Amino acid sequence: MMETRILHYEGIDSTNLEVTRLSQKGAAEGTVVVADVQTAGRGRRGRAWDSPKGEALYMSLLLRPTFAPDKAATLTLVMALAVMEAIAEIVPDGCGIKWPNDIVIDGKKVCGILTEMELQGQEIAHVVIGVGINLNQTSFAEEIAKTATSLRLKTGKTIERFALLDKVVYYFKRNYEVFLQTCDMRILVDKYNGFLVNCGKEVRVLDPQGEYEGVARGINEKGELLVEKHSKELVSVYAGEVSVRGIYGYV
Ligand code: BTN
Q1: pTM
Q2: I need a surface site. Which of 25, 29, 59, 110 has the fewest CB within 10 A?
Q3: pLDDT score recorded for residue 249
Q4: Probe target for ligand 1 pocket from 13, 17, 36, 58, with the most ligand atoms within 8 Å of CB
């Protein structure tokens, strides 16, 4: 199983950026950076990720996979599964995965994952998987107040950051080892779908080539979301291209 080495920083611009810099200096696979605060936390689609000091877990993991670059996007689902399993130990109900890689509690986002890849020619130089989990916040900035929650808000308890970090790393290593057997989600599909809150729900697929609605049926081995259109046609949705919204809210 992959060895991990955890580097703790008081403050950093972004743990994803720091892992990228360390990787460029030759850091080993399994390097993990965790920071108390990020001054330039990054979210998906170029957005910022609000990163107040000490209230959340900000971590990034370095991987150096040897498989083809087109498989790398799926790693984000492997991490989502790991975070889900770690959180499930603390939050027994109301928690699930919103495809592809948000973790939600009672329909509100508690974790976001940003996976970034660098290529060297046709090969993967590295993959950085960054995870932000809301732990002890009791309020959020106005823009996200309606859609964000924290583990503290759900459980009423203070969450110990490093214990959760250890759990996330533990579950990721296990799931990654399984993933590497086939370089896809084949063996993990059932476990992932068991946590998927979208399953059986109406979704709107925001495809740049035309939006459509249907019922989400779970992921396939490539990590694509299967959506049954109202015409009964089953389409597979690739995460990189589109986003999926619930018809009646965020999930
Ligand atoms: C999202 O938009 O949902 C993804 C958010 C990812 C945030 C985490 S926090 C740790 C790591 N470092 C970053 O700058 N971003 C990720």
Answers
A1: 0.95
A2: 25
A3: 62
A4: 58
